[in-house]
Amino acid sequence: MYEKSAGIIYENLSLNDKKIKAFANSAHLITFGKDKESLFEEVMSFIHKGAREDLKFKKLDYEGIIKQPPL
């Protein structure tokens, strides 16, 4: 079941650099499990990486390199 959910989330993320990671020492409530510190580090890394990609896109868009199509 978790593998299916992970696949759905993975396929719907717009980031190019993404991965599915399993935590062997935790179950459903991973935020309370033995791997909670590793999970936190992975999530924060993912968030920071996404923020950097978003900023790069906005900078390119601001400089007029990427044009948005008219609505």
- Parts with pLDDT < 50 across at least 5 consecutive residues: none
Main β-sheet, in a few words? none
What Rg is obtained from the alpha carbons, in whole angstroms?
16 Å
User: What series of H and E elements makes up the topology?
Assistant: HH
Classify the secondary structure makeup into a structural class: mainly alpha
Whole-number mean pLDDT: 75
- What share of residues are in beta strands? under 5%
**Straight-line N-to-C gap:** 40 Å
Helix content: 40-55%
Shape: flat
Oligomer state of the chains in this structure = single chain
What's the number of helices? Answer: 2
Q: How many strand elements? A: 0
Describe the protein in words.
With 71 residues, the chain is mainly alpha-helical. It has one domain. 54% of the residues lie in helices and 0% in strands. It contains 2 helices and no strands. The longest helix is centred in the last third of the chain and has 27 residues. The model has no long low-confidence stretch (mean pLDDT 75).
Annotate the secondary structure layout:
Layout: H1 2-12, H2 36-62
Short characterization:
The chain contains two helices and no strands. It is an all-alpha fold.
Features of this protein?
71 residues, mainly alpha, 2 helices, flat
